[in-house]
């Protein structure tokens, strides 16, 4: 009996450990470092999360229902709330179309702000969650805001323990650091009310492909092998099955590449990733990047992906593949397909 129990316990431990790809404690330190030590630098490097938050707001504006209670899961500093509260300016030199699109976006922000009566923010880092807690733009949001420091993998907090409590769950660029993503999505589905909305984004598999390939080629040249320098990411084709497995219905999934250009070298790109807290945290990651490998990667990056600016200088672009996903918790009130054979139009007549 003791041997059988020991074997069963070992099997359970293996099952629990099979999802452990990322070092969550290291990721917490990485994400907290810049907001705590240099808040102004942290604010300058929020451009990706702000851009994705705006695109989330644009998509949310097409949904006409009210969202009384909303969960911002993995909220970071609250980029979703910040961009709801701050009007977007017209781009410099913008034409009439830019003016109208900006006006529509700002109107959408006002409509969504009025829909949300309570926004519950959840993040594992206290430093980043509370960084902008005293900013003046928060006064533009009339609803109630609560901030909770919670490990996004455990759901061990009163705001996440009760089922069927949120009208919508928003999650922007945080799910890609969770080890057991299927369980996290299932828990998100659980806390939603029936027919509740989940709208999430995460970095997809083609993110930073320029950096990934340059580092791989450099290490092959210098060391004769490769180390996991860039974290593994979910691919677009896998997202639908993950959402279905978690219990979501009526899925909408698409992807968009956001290309950030103008980096003078690989080191500058890595500094931005570090300030964002998006550097590598794979458990099997190498301890450091040798200088000769970095120099080789920089030259390979320039030769394969470099772009010339107006002064003729070669700069480096970085591609961030963002996956947008929408799913609804199943409900008896949702529209259902008609039974087979009940159609009133013959397909032959249409074709």
Automatic annotation (TrEMBL):
Entry's Gene Ontology BP terms: methylation; mitochondrial respiratory chain complex I assembly
Keywords: Methyltransferase, Transferase
GO cellular component: mitochondrion
Keyword Methyltransferase carried by entry: yes
Molecular function terms, GO-annotated: methyltransferase activity
Domain of life: Eukaryota
Signal peptide (UniProt feature, chain positions): none
Protein name: S-adenosyl-L-methionine-dependent methyltransferase
Source species of the chain: Suhomyces tanzawaensis NRRL Y-17324
Lineage of the species this protein comes from: Eukaryota, Fungi, Dikarya, Ascomycota, Saccharomycotina
């Amino acid at each position: 009996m003791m041997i059988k129990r020991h074997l069963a316990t070992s099997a359970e431990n293996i099952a629990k450990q099979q999802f452990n790809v990322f070092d969550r404690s290291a990721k917490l330190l990485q994400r907290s470092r810049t907001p705590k030590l240099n808040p102004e630098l942290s604010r300058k490097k929020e451009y990706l999360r702000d851009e994705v938050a705006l695109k989330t707001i644009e998509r949310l504006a097409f949904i006409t229902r009210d969202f009384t209670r909303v969960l911002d899961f993995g909220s970071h500093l609250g980029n979703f709330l910040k961009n709801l509260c701050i009007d977007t300016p017209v781009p410099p030199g913008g034409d009439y179309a830019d003016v109208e699109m900006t006006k529509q976006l700002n109107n959408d922000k006002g409509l969504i702000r009025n829909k949300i009566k309570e926004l519950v923010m959840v993040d594992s880092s206290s430093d980043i969650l509370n960084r902008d807690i005293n900013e003046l733009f928060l006064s533009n949001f009339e609803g109630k805001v609560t901030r909770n420091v919670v490990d996004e993998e455990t759901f061990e907090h009163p705001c996440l323990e009760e089922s069927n409590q949120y009208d919508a769950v928003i999650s922007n660029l945080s799910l890609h650091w969770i080890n057991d993503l299927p369980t996290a999505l299932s828990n998100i589905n659980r806390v939603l009310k029936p027919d509740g909305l989940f709208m999430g984004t995460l970095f997809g598999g083609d993110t930073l492909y320029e950096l990934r390939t340059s580092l791989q080629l450099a290490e092959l040249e210098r060391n004769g092998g490769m180390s996991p320098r860039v974290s593994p990411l979910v691919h677009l084709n896998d997202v639908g099955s993950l959402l279905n497995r978690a219990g979501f219905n009526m899925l909408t999934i698409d992807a968009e590449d956001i290309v950030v250009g103008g980096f003078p070298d690989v080191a500058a790109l890595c500094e931005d990733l570090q300030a964002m807290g998006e550097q590598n945290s794979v458990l099997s990651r190498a301890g450091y990047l040798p200088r000769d490998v970095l120099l080789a990667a920089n030259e390979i990056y320039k030769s394969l992906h470099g772009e010339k600016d107006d002064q003729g200088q070669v700069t480096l672009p970085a591609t961030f593949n963002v996956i947008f996903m929408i799913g609804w918790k199943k409900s008896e009130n949702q529209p259902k397909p008609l039974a087979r054979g009940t159609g009133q139009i013959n397909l032959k007549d249409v074709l």
